[in-house]
From TrEMBL:
Keyword field: Signal
Cited SUPFAM superfamilies: Phosphoglycerate mutase-like
Keyword rRNA processing among UniProt keywords: no
Name recorded for this polypeptide: Putative phosphoglycerate mutase
PROSITE patterns in the cross-refs: PROKAR_LIPOPROTEIN (PS51257)
GO molecular function annotation: phosphatase activity
Region called Disordered, residue ranges: 35-64
Record's signal peptide: 1-19
One protein family per Pfam: His_Phos_1
Positions that bind substrate: R73, H74, G75, K76, T77, M78, L79, N80, R125, E152, V153, C154, Y155
Top-level lineage group: Bacteria
Catalytic residues (positions): H74 (tele-phosphohistidine intermediate), E152 (proton donor/acceptor)
GO cellular component, one term: cytoplasm
Amino acid sequence: MRQRRVMAIMMAGILCASAALTGCAKAPAKERTEAQAEVKTEAQAGESTVTQAEESTEAQAMEPAPVTLFLTRHGKTMLNTTGRMQGWCDSPLTEDGAAVAEKLGRGLKKAGITFDAVYTSDSGRAMETAELILKNNGQPEVSLQRNPKVREVCYGIYEGAMPAEAYTPAAKALGYDSVDAMMGAVMGGKLKIEDAVTAMAETDESKTAETWETAQKRVMDGIREIAGDASKRGQKQVLVVSHGMAISAAVAAIDPNAAAGELGNASITKIIYDNGTFTVESVNDMSYIEE
């Protein structure tokens, strides 16, 4: 009898213990589920934070960088020396023209200015000037990229002509007695150079000369291409070797108040491109060739 009581007590204890263990097992399972959910939420939050950081970094990397364009007019050529119209026609640099290009290269080097990219028009005088600049700036390994859009204005039938011959019909069309009178009006601010160029183009019987508007649009298309590509590539300083009238047209398009008359050979005109906007910083700077 006593043994039966002992066995009953032991069985009751076992059952109680089993029930207790079952209850204890259930509680931790619930807690584990909640903990797992918390961990998962934290992991997702962490992943979201990392993704946002990566997206922010990518956005910064993709954001266009500001670009400084150093527009320079080519060195003096044979046709410059003889005073003839030189647009799409070409002539080699003179000895003085080569020397001033070399001076510009040395002056830029002295100022600590190097280039991430170099563009030129497809005219020989522009390419020759660029090569001399890079050689004397300590960057002969930089390759030239040609862009025909930054060529000089095309003078059509008047290519290679003396200015008096080219502009006389234009002067008459604009109501002036002579080319000198017309140019005097330009210098005095009574007539815009773009009007004189357009009048000359309109008197070209071959219809191949460019009006100011046509040339300006072409040049600005080229400048936008160069600046946009440089910005995407993270190139901060770009040399563009172009031509006097072409650079003047670009300056007038960006800031009509920044015009500075005729540009000197090997002069620097600095234009800043930032997020799609152009700003003229300086025009016809000759300080780099002063030794």
